Task: inverse folding
């Protein structure tokens, strides 16, 4: 047991270092791209720099939120601090949407007010950016599997890598063919992708923060499965939510079939079913005999009572 704990602690330390260095690398890249974009007169390069600045901030938020989320439960936060990462994800996604909207404005403006662009600088800067983006993606890939917060940061850098390839191609088009319109067009493509990815993730994050039921959970299937357990007549006052993306919780009133039902057995079987079939490890069950159920004062006000 102690071996597993130390291994986990070691993994967390490695994860924290990966996030920290990702912040440093992305801040350095942002400064470089801003300078290169100003020299080249490329709004697409400036867009990439702005995106990278946001990524650095996002990674910093991810780093801090990750630290906070490890704190155990206390009297103020009885479920612990695990949702800190979700709040971090929400902050960075909101900022990213603002960046995307700004890039749409800049891209459209450049169509109506074209500026001279140095394609060679675009290619050089985007090539450097691509190397940095892929390095950051590599650092974050393993961490992104179990955290929406880190996944948001990972996706930021993945979109940056794609954007860098696009800007590099755009620089080539400007340099060899003088297609200056490619620069604002690429800006709009980058912005569109940023907005598409961000709105998808913010929807998922909001669902958890609003204590919505897991998307892959069938309410009716769960209710039917519980009612099939011997001794259960019905269940009501049913609430299912996610504490974070890895932990589900449930509370419900269980109406027993008779006054002398075996409460201990029924509770154990329901909890085992919820854990094994529906992935719900934290469940609070209030068992009621028929007389207690009929006397329940708020029975008609209880949600999901059928």
Result:
């Amino acid at each position: 047991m102690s071996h597993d704990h130390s291994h986990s602690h070691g993994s967390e330390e490695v994860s924290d270092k990966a996030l920290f260095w990702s912040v440093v690398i992305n801040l350095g890249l942002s400064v470089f791209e801003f300078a290169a974009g100003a020299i080249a007169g490329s709004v697409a390069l400036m867009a990439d720099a702005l995106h990278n600045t946001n990524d650095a901030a996002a990674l910093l938020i991810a780093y801090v939120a990750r630290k906070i989320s490890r704190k155990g439960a206390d009297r103020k936060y009885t479920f612990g601090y695990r949702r800190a990462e979700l709040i971090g994800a929400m902050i960075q996604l909101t900022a990213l949407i603002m960046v995307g909207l700004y890039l749409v404005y800049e891209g459209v403006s450049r169509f109506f007010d074209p500026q001279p662009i140095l394609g060679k600088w675009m290619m050089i800067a985007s090539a450097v950016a691509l190397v940095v983006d892929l390095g950051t993606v590599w650092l974050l890939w393993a961490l992104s599997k179990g955290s929406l917060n880190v996944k948001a940061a990972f996706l930021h850098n993945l979109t940056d890598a794609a954007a860098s390839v696009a800007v590099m191609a755009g620089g080539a088009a400007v340099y060899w063919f003088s297609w200056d319109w490619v620069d604002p067009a690429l800006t709009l493509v980058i912005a569109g992708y940023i907005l598409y990815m961000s709105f998808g993730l913010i929807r998922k994050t909001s669902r958890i923060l609003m204590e919505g039921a897991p998307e892959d959970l069938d309410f009716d299937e769960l209710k039917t499965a519980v009612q099939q357990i011997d001794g259960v007549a019905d269940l009501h006052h049913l609430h299912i939510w996610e504490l974070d993306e890895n932990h589900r919780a449930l509370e419900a009133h269980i109406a027993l079939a008779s006054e002398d039902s075996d409460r201990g057995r029924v509770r154990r079987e329901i909890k085992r079913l919820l854990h094994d079939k529906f992935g719900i490890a934290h469940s609070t069950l209030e068992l009621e005999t028929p007389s207690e159920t009929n006397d329940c004062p708020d029975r008609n006000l209880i949600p999901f009572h059928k």
